[in-house]
Amino acid sequence: MTTTPSYQASHPATHPFSTVRDVLRYAVSRFNQAQLSFGHGSANAYDEAVYLVLHTLHLPLDLLDPFLDARLTADEVDTVLKVIERRAAERVPAAYITQEAWMHGYRFHVDERVIVPRSFIGELLQDGLQPYVEDPEAVSAVLELCTGSGCLAILAAHAFPNADIDAVDLSPGAIEVATINVIDYELDERIAVFEGDLFAPLPERRYDVILANPPYVNAASMEALPAEYRHEPELALAGGADGMDIVRRIVGEARNWLTDDGVLVVEIGNERANVEAALGGLDLVWLSTSAGDDNVFLLQASDLPGA
Questions:
Q1: Which residues pair with 192 in a beta bridge?
Q2: For domain 7-98, which architecture applies?
Q3: What secondary structure does DSSP assign to the chain, as a single string?
Q4: Domain boundaries in the chain?
Q5: Which pTM does this prediction carry?
Q6: pLDDT value at 1 more than 50
Q7: Cα end-to-end span (Å), the chain
Q8: What percentage of residues in the chain have a pLDDT greater than 90?
Q9: Which residue among 20, 192, 215, 294 has the highest number of C-beta atoms inside a 10 angstrom radius?
Q10: pLDDT, average across residues 94-99
């Protein structure tokens, strides 16, 4: 059983912190001392510290400078320091502490039932997957598999304004979180959420676009994951020995669900070598993202097995 560290047990009742600048400096030092891993919304100790301090103090997340020398009450300092200590001692992703994650300007409710949103497919949806989708406004049906928090389904609803979206996840907890986010964005009339194994719970239909950010971490990489990632559901990360268990199934079945000119877009992290070994012979198109050209592939319906 994990015992939550007590801030009071390791820190005196009085402390030298009085301003936002003070607690921010302390947070960066504490995070560096703890050798935290990042990648759940922030890339380094400073960005993570700024986010957690501003969020905890109920200050605008994009306005640090005006508040740097603002004096804090004793209660505010105590509250911020407890958040900093939880992040450092328990190695909990910041998103689970704040119960929110931001992606491309959209806020999503997040908790331990889902992985923290961080998909590169979100970048690609900003221009509606063009040029592979000729006219985003002509897209009428989109499917997102392994939806988790529902973030990509919601981004797809904005990228394809005339489309109905189906979102599927095997985890009942993920379905609950996705439903919260769909309702928050008032998209429950356009996004239908299904609990089940990939295509199994869906009514028979065809989609113009299928999106998937499935479990793809190979077994060796799962063993080496930093502590922060071990707070996330293993079901949403582990992809089997080579990471391709779910990817193979998606690619193998997708043609039965796509329109003749539809596309399948799949995110696979750092597993390109395993993808090419598993799907050798298919005409994979690797899409450019901020992380390079190795994280997301696209297949045209006509190039999928069973075409």
A1: 166
A2: Orthogonal Bundle (1.10)
A3: -PPPPPHHHHS-SS-S--BHHHHHHHHHHHHHHHT----SS-SSHHHHHHHHHHHHTT--TT--GGGTT-B--HHHHHHHHHHHHHHHHH---HHHHHTEEEETTEEEE--TTSPPP--THHHHHTTTTTTTSS-GGG--EEEEES-TTSHHHHHHHHHSTT-EEEEEES-HHHHHHHHHHHHHTT-TTTEEEEESSTTTTSPS--EEEEEE----B-HHHHHT--HHHHTS-GGGTB--TTS-HHHHHHHHHHGGGEEEEEEEEEE-TT-HHHHHHHTTTS--EEPPBTTBSSSEEEEEGGGSTT-
A4: 7-98, 116-303
A5: 0.90
A6: no
A7: 51
A8: 89
A9: 20
A10: 97
Q: What are the tens digits of pLDDT across the range 16-68?
A: 899 999 999 999 999 999 999 998 888 999 999 999 999 999 999 999 999 99
CATH number of the 116-303 domain: 3.40.50.150
pLDDT per residue as tens digits for the range 114-147 = 999 989 999 999 999 999 999 999 999 999 999 9
Question: Can you tell me which residue has the tokens 């040029």?
Answer: 131
Provide CB contacts within 8 A for 137, sequence distance 6+.
160, 161, 162
User: Which tokens is 61 given?
Assistant: 């997340």
Q: What is the pLDDT of residue 7?
A: 46
131 Cβ contact list (under 8 Å, min separation 6): none
> What would the two tokens of residue 72 be?
């804090």
| pLDDT, position 307 | 63
